[in-house]
Amino acid sequence: MKEFDMADERRFAGIEAGGTKFVCALATADGRTLARERIGTADPALTLSQTLEFFGRAGREHGAPTAAGIASFGPLDLDPASPAYGRIVSTPKPGWSDVNILAAVRDGLGVPTRIDTDVNAAAMAEGRHGAAKGCHTHAYVTVGTGIGVGLVAGGRSLIARGHAEMGHIPVPRAPGDDFTGVCSYHGDCLEGMASGPAMAARWGCPAQDLVPDHPAWAMQAHYVAALCCTLIYTVRPDRIVIGGGVFEQPSLHAHVRRMLEPMLAGYGLSPHERDLHTLIVAPGLVETPPGLLGALELARQAADG
Ligand code: ADP
Ligand code: ZN
Fold first, then answer.
1. CA 198, CA 205: separation in Å to the nearest integer?
2. Cα of 110 to ligand 1 centre, how many Å?
């Protein structure tokens, strides 16, 4: 007898909640976007009501969502046991401290809803659709205004409570580097030494203005390779995807591989970890924002329980 192929008619709501805009999309289960809207981040009550109105309209036209996912700016309370679960915690963004985006969306749409950081969501999207497709465990690193690391295992965030702050790990100094660092908490942590603003402060111009053979890139690669070394020896990722504005510099991934090799010194590596070309890669998702795709992935997880 021929097997009956049930089409998955579910609709998912995805929200990429950023400090300047909320990007909302209603999508099919196979990831096709049916409606999309960009809402400027204003005061929370207005932004959240516009978000819910969008999903109301889109749902009437294309079918109501069965679940929702939110990839949010932070810091967020991500401890499911906390009474403040789903809240934004003390952000400098006016009005948004203590706003519970998760509760507003879940109660407003009346569907199961999940929230995670924008970086973790982008990491999940790279795993499902992008450069880490097929990997069991992977890391997604973004080097831009800050440095964030998302860790995914089996399609879900590896850290179940709270979020990792790997951008702030201490790092060994590059030989001859006496820069004090720009992190307002730690000075010369990874973010303090290697974020976009750290590069601008160190070299006196934005990173994108530095010529390709500038010594800045080798130094930059040293710090990011130190992060990769830590990730490899702790998390054992099948892949490390590195993106963000600073990694738009085309030669930087190759620089990181070159710096990483002597740091690892061949110690304790499985065969796949020895191939740094498949271990350290650029993002695969460039057109649809990975945070939005990650939000839709969170919606799928919310629906599946
Ligand atoms: P954000 O982290 O704010 O979301 P980005 O990931 O775009 O934004 O990162 C912004 C940082 O990336 C800035 O510090 C900028 O100087 C740097 N940047 C942007 N484009 C490039 C480039 N082509 N090469 C190197 N650095 C870049
Ligand atoms: Zn720091």
1. 10
2. 38
